[in-house]
Design goal:
Elements (H helix, E strand, L loop, with lengths): L6 H9 L9 H4 L2 E3 L3 E9 L8 E9 L2 E7 L9 E4 L3 E5 L1 E3 L5 E2 L19 E2 L3 H9 L1 E5 L6 H12 L7 E3 L5 E2 L9 E2 L3 H14 L3 E4 L5 H13 L3 E4 L6 H7 L3 E3 L21 H9 L6 H12 L3 E4 L1 H5 L10 H6 L2 H15 L4 H21 L4 E3 L13 H12 L4 H8 L1 H6 L17 E5 L12 E6 L2 E3 L1 H6 L9
Parallel strand pairs: 2-5, 2-6, 7-10, 10-11, 12-13, 14-15, 15-16, 16-17, 17-18
Antiparallel strand pairs: 1-21, 2-3, 3-4, 6-19, 8-9, 19-20, 20-21
Helix pairs in contact: 5-6, 14-15
Length: 487
């Protein structure tokens, strides 16, 4: 039942695999190349499978798909638009697996620096986020929780109809949350029947995945997972009241963020279906080594249950005040209020004795867990999670995620696979996206440099091909200058 394909999924697969309509005038503003036959010559091919790079190749794109990969000495077909990419690399389009069309625009605090009732809000940025993701090389993404699911569904329809630029979207339904939620924009589900009805309704509306949140209880999560699987849809979770082992036993498909900041199973004396304080969760992981028998047993349990983990290292890095500030380009894209809020959060954190060192140590431990999980056979996905303290921007966070995976101990080739083919595999779309091979969609990212030798080159995006159309990242970014956090 878990692998059954519903009509909703089929509709998404079909809409993202054919070019039914011509690009609108709005989309054409950002196109560099729209020819039906394009030859990318003298390019380094990093195919996303983890295989070594292929030097001096020609990648032929025909009618939105990869037609052939040949030696660059082979003459391109007559009539092809030839693009000389000497000194450039091409990788598969990124598959973002913890991405949002929302963002922590600003953190509302009272005079004592606390977040007053009704607590935390996020802002839908459905205009700027799709453009930023595409500009960074994200050609497919999962929204991984939605506060405005109808907005996300409508944005997906407009992107698929070539009315606006953006990645292909796997739209996650509204958060499946429990009582006493910290976010007033989330649904509160305390009854199993309510959970089943919620899943049924949103599956009917066209969402293609679901996400459970921190306060959900075991019975409600079990009902939601069971009902989603009846529709052939997968469930991920940013959990707390339910720990990782419990969620795996209930059949969850994916867990977000990794355990160091979210898995409560090692908190002493915790009550059933209650979420301990985040500080208690972190403290419980500070006391454990990744190589310890109990952590290794957790990894083995997750692998045995085929539970994927989504790495979201960028959102955690933003909480370490000794890590680098956002670039000037990113600051220019943010609204003044969003930038002020983020810088204020960093400043407040830096005044707390020992905070920076503790957060750095927790980040390193999460990195070590993710490396151990993959070495044990686990499926690791990647996404930036543009929330937190506002220091993780759509698209830029995806690029930073690859760099942090390399810092964690993965090779650049492994990091690229995690951010491309692994996401496609999880979604069951690895036959059409996620790697560079003849017959697959022409979803490609052209980079200046060689990210297999210098992973920071992942930021040097010159062209993004989605379904064979070549987009200009500079124009896409310029179109949202000063808007991140507003629209």
């Amino acid at each position: 039942m878990r692998h059954q394909i519903t009509l909703a999924c089929m509709a998404w697969f079909i809409s993202s695999s054919v070019l039914a309509q011509a690009p609108s005038a709005e989309v054409r503003k950002f196109l560099q190349y729209d020819q039906p036959l394009i030859a990318l010559t003298h390019v380094r091919v990093i195919d996303g499978t983890g295989a070594p790079a292929q030097e001096d190749r020609t990648v032929l794109l025909r009618d939105g798909r990869i037609d052939a990969i040949t030696d660059a000495r082979t003459a391109p077909p007559k009539g092809a638009q030839v693009i000389d990419l000497t000194g450039r690399s091409v990788i598969p389009g990124l598959v973002g697996m913890h991405n949002h069309l929302m963002y922590t625009a600003s953190i509302n605090r009272d005079d004592e620096g606390r977040t007053p009732p009704p607590s935390m809000f996020v802002t839908e940025i459905a205009f700027s986020a799709p453009r930023l993701y595409l500009a960074a090389g994200v050609t497919t993404m999962r929204t991984t929780g939605s506060v405005e699911p109808y907005t996300d569904l409508n944005i997906r329809r407009q992107i698929d109809a070539f009315k606006i630029p953006g990645p292909h979207l796997d739209v996650t339904g509204p958060y499946l949350e429990g009582k006493d939620t910290f976010f007033p924009q989330m649904a509160v589900l305390t009854e199993t029947e309510h959970a089943r009805k919620t899943v049924d309704f949103w599956a009917g509306e066209g969402v293609t995945s679901f996400k459970a949140y921190v306060k959900i209880s075991q019975p409600v999560l079990a009902a939601a997972v069971d009902q989603a699987h009846k529709h052939g849809l997968k469930v991920t979770g940013h959990l707390c009241a339910v720990d990782y082992r419990q969620a795996a036993a209930l059949g969850i498909d994916n867990l977000e963020h990794g355990p160091v900041f979210t898995d409560s199973e090692f908190v002493a004396g915790r009550a059933a279906d209650e979420c301990p304080a985040s500080s208690a969760v972190a403290a419980s992981w500070e006391q454990r080594e990744i190589g310890s028998p109990e952590v290794q047993a957790l990894i083995a349990d997750l692998v045995a249950h085929n539970v994927a983990i989504t790495s979201t290292l960028p959102v955690f890095e933003a909480f370490v005040p000794t890590r680098p500030l956002l670039s000037r380009q990113q600051m220019a894209l943010m609204s003044p209020e969003s930038l002020r809020s983020h810088l204020e959060a960093r400043a407040l954190a830096s005044t707390t004795p020992g905070y920076a060192a503790r957060q750095e140590a927790l980040l390193k431990k999460e990195m070590a867990f993710e490396l151990a999980f993959v070495r044990a056979g686990g499926l690791l996905l990647a996404g930036p999670d543009p929330t937190g303290n506002g220091g993780t921007l759509p698209g830029f966070g995806d690029q930073r995620g690859l760099q942090l995976l390399v810092e964690a101990g993965f090779t650049p080739l492994e990091a690229i696979r995690i951010a491309t083919l692994n996401g496609a595999r999880y979604m069951g779309r690895h036959d059409s996206i996620g790697s560079i091979a003849p017959g697959k969609h022409a979803d490609l990212v052209v980079l200046k440099g060689d990210p297999t030798r210098r992973i920071a080159d992942i930021e040097n995006v010159e062209i993004v091909f989605k379904d064979g159309y070549g987009y200009d990242p500079a124009r896409l970014n310029a179109s949202v200058r000063g808007m991140v956090g507003i629209r």
